[in-house]
Amino acid sequence: MSSLHGTALGVALDAEGPLRGVLLVGPPGCGKSRLAAELIAHCPHQRTGLIADDLVQFDGEGWAETPAAGPLLHLRGMGIAEVRQAPPMGIDYIVRLGPTEQPETQQPGLEQAKEVPADPKLVTAASLRLALRSLASGHSLWCGFEPGPDR
């Protein structure tokens, strides 16, 4: 079993499809937990949930595991909040909120996850959900003015 610093979610991109595993990574204080709280609270399908916050544990096959304490989200300046839980799952997307070291996400099972760069000052739950839905459908929102997920 391995672990890394980040926040893992199961994100609903539509009303009935499978949840998509999303790992938010970035330096401390960049807004990982805030963005996770927004994604959960403002999910139009009421299905997005937390897998793990702060220290994400992975089993030997790359699935993010839910901690025994349950779906607890640490909100800076506010404390701990219990939120909707998502089941353990593989990670489909790694959202980089600012600079992080690449080796951090070189975990077994994460090599197939698509990288999604995001400016922590500009990204919102709505914009991230739209970008993920576009990527999941095989389309891209990137217009060439800034680096996209494939760089």
What would your notes on this structure say?
This is HPr kinase/phosphorylase. With 151 residues, the protein is of the alpha+beta class. The chain has helices spanning 32-41, 125-136; strands at residues 2-11, 20-25, 49-58, 63-65, 72-75, 79-82, 89-90, 93-97, 114-118. The chain has a 7-stranded mixed sheet with strand order 7-4-3-1-2-8-9. The chain has a two-stranded antiparallel ribbon with strand order 5-6. It is globular and about 35 Å long. The chain starts with a strand and ends in a 15-residue tail after the last helix. The mean pLDDT is 87.
Give a topology summary:
Blueprint (H helix, E strand, L loop, with lengths): L1 E10 L8 E6 L6 H10 L7 E10 L4 E3 L6 E4 L3 E4 L6 E2 L2 E5 L16 E5 L6 H12 L15
Parallel strand pairs: 2-8, 8-9
Antiparallel strand pairs: 1-2, 1-3, 3-4, 4-7, 5-6
List the defining traits of the structure above.
9 strands, 2 helices, P-loop_NTPase, two-stranded antiparallel ribbon, seven-stranded mixed sheet, HPr kinase/phosphorylase, 151 residues
Brief synopsis:
This is HPr kinase/phosphorylase. The protein has two helices and nine strands.
Query: How many beta-strand segments?
Result: 9
- Name the strands of the widest sheet in spatial order: 7-4-3-1-2-8-9
Using the CA coordinates, give the radius of gyration.
14 Å
Structural class: alpha+beta
For the biggest sheet, the summary is: 7 strands, mixed
Our measurement of the CA-to-CA distance between the termini, rounded to an integer number of angstroms, reads: 31 Å
Strand proportion, as a percent range, falls in: 25-35%
Please write the string of helix (H) and strand (E) elements: EEHEEEEEEEH
Helical percentage? 10-25%
Uncertain spans:
none
Mean pLDDT, rounded to whole units?
Answer: 87
Q: Total number of helical segments?
A: 2
Q: What would you call the shape? A: globular
InterPro entries: P-loop_NTPase (IPR027417)
Protein name: HPr kinase/phosphorylase
Organism: Parvularcula lutaonensis
